[in-house]
Design a protein that fits this description.
Helix content is 29%, strand content 25%. It is an alpha+beta fold. It has a single domain, classed as Aminopeptidase (3-Layer(aba) Sandwich). A five-stranded mixed β-sheet has the order 1-2-3-4-5, sandwiched between helices. The longest helix is centred in the first third of the chain and has 15 residues.
């Protein structure tokens, strides 16, 4: 089977129904990793607001006109003691299961990295659950390094 033609583009409000579905898929995968999540329906993001925010870049990957993946980069203020005032925070990384293993996530990461650099953000960060080894491997393959471990006591 040949690799499909993959188009990475900026998300629009028209994409919102699909993107809200992706958000719920992310939550479904991550819920078992986090016992502190509320029961019932939750939302991580205000995707519509981010799509309209000039300090955010929400992208989708399309295959034959169908949205199959997503991600965003957004300006975040760094802690006052760091050597950079702002950094790019990446999130909403999702690829539909039928399209995994095709390098789509890497293409989205590259687009978000380029947008970040073009906007003067040289530091790029993301968070991932320690138990989510497939995601960690994908991010390490893209050049990310483990940096900080957040711990909790309950």
């Amino acid at each position: 089977m040949s690799k499909p033609n993959i188009n990475i583009r900026e998300a629009t409000l028209v994409d919102l129904p699909v993107l809200l579905g992706f958000e719920q898929e992310i939550i479904k995968v991550e819920r078992p990793f986090d016992v502190t999540m509320k029961d019932g329906p939750i939302s991580y993001y205000d995707i519509g607001e981010m799509i309209q925010d000039p300090k955010a870049h929400v992208v989708v990957a399309e295959v034959e006109g169908k949205i199959v993946a997503s991600g965003y980069a957004i300006f975040k203020r760094a802690r006052h003691y760091l050597d950079h005032e702002f950094y790019a925070y990446l999130g909403f990384m999702y690829t539909h299961e039928d399209f995994r293993g095709m390098g789509i996530n890497a293409m989205i990461l590259e687009e978000l990295k380029n947008w970040s650099y073009d906007n003067g953000l040289k530091e790029i960060r993301l968070t991932v659950y320690n138990e989510n080894q497939p995601a960690i491997k994908a991010y390490e393959k893209a050049g990310f390094k483990k940096h900080l471990i957040e711990m909790r006591l309950a």
